Amino acid sequence: MADAAEIQGPSASPARRRLRRAGALLAGAPLLAGLLQLTAAEPAQAAPADSVSVALDTMTPSAPTQDDTLTVSGTVINNGKQPVTGAHVGLRVGPLLNTRSAVDGIAQHPNDLRGGTGDELGGKYTEKFSKLVPGVAEHFSISVPVDELNLGKDGVYSFGVSVSGKTSARPWDQMLGIERTFLPWQSSEADTKSRTTFMWPLISSVHMTARTGAGERQTPVFQDDELAKEIAPGGRLAQMMDLGRDLDVTWVIDPDLLAAVDAMANGYRVQQPDGTSKAGSRENQDIAKQWLAGLQKAVTGKEVVALPFADPDIASLAHTGTSVTGSLSHLKDATDVAALTVKTVLHVTPTTDFAWPVEGAVDPSIIKVATSAGADRVIARSDSLRESAGLSYTPSAARPIGGGTTAVVADARMSTAFEGDLTRADSSTLAVQQFLAQSLEANVQKDEQRSIVVAPQRTPTASQAQAMATAVKALQDGNWSQPDTLTGAANAKPDPDATTRIPSTSAYPSSLRKRELPRSAFEQIADTQDKLDNFQVILTDQSRVVTPFGRAINRGMSTSWRGQAAKADGFRADVLSYLDNLGGQVKLIDKSETKLSGRSATIPVTVQNNLVQPVGHLYLRLSSTQPTRLKIGGKAYDEQPVEVSGGHSQSVKFTTSANANGRATVLAQLYTEDGQEYGDPVSFDVKVTEVTPTVMLVIGGGVLLLVLAGFRMYTQRKRAAARQAEEEGPDEAEADSGDDSGNPDDAGDRLSEEARSPAGAAGPDQPGDPAPDTAPESADPSGTGERVDR
């Protein structure tokens, strides 16, 4: 019974507990509502509905020194529905930031009123507005001597531009908006300066196709005319070239870009939607020449790093391409041609031992592929090769990772500072200040000199490039950094405490993996290479196809295809289609049924070459599918070498022999010297009509009739001669007999008789010989019932 009571007791407890909880909730509802109102009121007070947005458009100098005057300008906009009265814009110097993470926090929330905004400078260093009308932008500009900012020790300070005022709903002075940024402060030359390498990428998307003109110049065909826009004055690449000219940077160049601009400068064509092409404009040719001339001057005396041709996607190759035979060889080809291209176009010798995976993300397979083509330095990024030892400072970029390979680790914070939309002046200004703040913050972490590498996005926009140039210029003029080359950073003494552990393949970012080239892309490239190998062996001038198609294969695995899967597939398909079209210009002409009368004859097969160059190293094989009935050259098949001039056809004759009447199928196929089939085979039937005994009997009867006719003529002549002799008498007969050998008339009679006799018909054109079976040779397809030479 006791046990039963203990069991039953708890069964009623949950119901009682639910009642007690419901009562407590009802009793505490008013208190909860009050708490919710207070919680909701906090952000309302921090960012009221009557807020005013502040845009900091300029801040000069970006890194001021002791004797400078700081000038900030921008705009304020009243976003509320009520006018703001008694408004003014002021400057606020916040606290000294001690970590790079603190810089990140402000950069992520630049308009947060709850942050450490610091005290307003006030006084004459404000700009006042009697009224801010809703939706109307008002411009401001404030200048203040740096010594009035009361800055303390060197470092990075939080800096804000705020707007304060009153509204009818809140008739007291309050801060209604702020834009927070950074004020790098290095009052004098730092005792230890960072060595900063800024990579200046000159990379574009794929523009050239595999197609070229048929003439000697092989005029290249472009997909579109977009490259002309990029290198034209004001274009993205034109600005990259102009801005980089005056900066201490390392130029990182895709040789394919140089090849494309150089091709444009020497005359090019543009592909049209209907498959044709039109000549590029003379104006664009001049633009290309000017851009190349300017770039040659810009890189003089600077380090130039050449990426493999067309900037192959190393990560895609490592993750999906290595399973396809031959894929790695294309990376080696792209690396080998890179130096030659840069040297030919820019007249400088580039460095080619750097590999740059997308966004500096690495894993063991990427490192292996990158170094397979000869690159012993891989540009990684610190958000991929993360520090695991809990260092309190940013180590130098160089990391020995084994096997004689060095990972050059770019700083992720500084490298990504110029991403996003920087077309607005305030966005650009904030990016510059954030970059400088991170640079100075990294320098003050440690007294020892370190090498910092900045690897920005591969194809920055014009506005991003302008912000980058502003930041680099300010850094060069600053007191805490000095420029360095990429090679210098790679050769710098590595930090023994820095991590050298390459992240696993599973740690590779999924966002990047989703945009990689699929395995099918490398299979398509392999198919193209196989067909190119088969095609080039028959050519007398292989360079006409090896060079344009080899470079097109490199372009098919370019990093620029990321995020453009459909366009990438279309490009590779067009390369393969064009190659098939060229290969199909050398082919066999179709034949219809051929008739063979007799036991032996020759069969002609025509090879047509519509290319502009001669072809050779080919063999034509003619095979009988029924060798018991029809043999080719005395066996089942025969083959002969083939050489055909450009734009011509050539007939190849095969001797055949028939063993029986009927129809036999014959197969003609071209082969390369290494035994590979070339092109499509041609199949046709041969109808054998053997000579029968009846025909021989008829022919024999005809010959017998001729012999009998000749004998009859002979006997008639003898009888006529005998009658004449009887009529003339013995004396005349004796006279005739004595003069017979010397009578010219008699000799003429004999020659005449011999000419009329069957024996006189012997010679090269005997009446018994049949006429030739074939007409003059032609490259056109054979007609129905074609006969062959015997």
Automatic annotation (TrEMBL):
Source organism of the structure: Streptomyces bauhiniae
Signal sequence, renumbered to the chain: 1-46
Protein name: Uncharacterized protein
Start and end residues of each stretch annotated as Disordered: 484-508, 722-790
Compositional bias ranges of the Low complexity kind: 758-776
TM region positions: 695-714
Bias (Basic and acidic residues): 747-756
Keyword Membrane: yes
Segments of skewed composition (Acidic residues): 727-743
Entry superkingdom: Bacteria
Alphabetized UniProt keyword annotations: Membrane, Signal, Transmembrane, Transmembrane helix
InterPro entries: DUF6049 (IPR046112), TonB_box_CS (IPR010916)
